[in-house]
Amino acid sequence: QVQLVESGGGLVQPGGSLRLSCAASGRTLDYYTIAWFRQAPGKEREGVSCISVKDSSTSFGDSVKGRFTISKDNRKGTVYLQMNSLKPEDTAVYYCAAALTGWTTLDPHSYDYWGQGTQVTVSS
Questions:
Q1: Which of 10, 74, 79, 107 is most buried, by CB atoms within 10 Å?
Q2: Could you tell me the mean pLDDT of each successive run of 10 residues in the chain, 124 residues long?
């Protein structure tokens, strides 16, 4: 089992920044990919970004490219999502997920473990 706990959500004005954290525990994460997804009311879950714990390769959804970055601290077992130039359409519940896979993917069906989510609201 892998346990995931998200933190760092909140209310921010358009153009602002937030950093989300995903603390992972349980099994060794060396062969996992950790991803961020988001879901706004009435919309499907959307892949935001992911990172391979083993080789640090990354992937981003088209709507966040150039604005969001993803990083990890293997020692702390934590993955970070730095969100800059936030827009109202970024408002959603953000979920952290883990997949035992050797490559990066933003297909939610590939992920076995999910956190509870953290709310991000971008509004003036």
A1: 79
A2: 94 98 85 94 96 92 97 92 98 96 89 96 96
* Beta bridge pairs of residue 59: 50
**Between β-strands 32-39 and 2-7, what pairing exists: parallel, antiparallel or unpaired?**
unpaired
Average pLDDT, the chain: 94
State residue 53's pLDDT score: 87
d(CA 104, CA 37): 13
DSSP states of the chain: -EEEEEE--EEE-TT--EEEEEEEEES--TTEEEEEEEE-TTS--EEEEEEETTT--EEE-TTTTTTEEEEEETTTTEEEEEE-S--GGG-EEEEEEEEE-SS----GGG--EE---EEEEE--
Report how far residue 4's alpha carbon sits from residue 94's, in angstroms, rounded to the nearest whole number: 12
| CA–CA dist 118, 96 (Å, integer) | 9
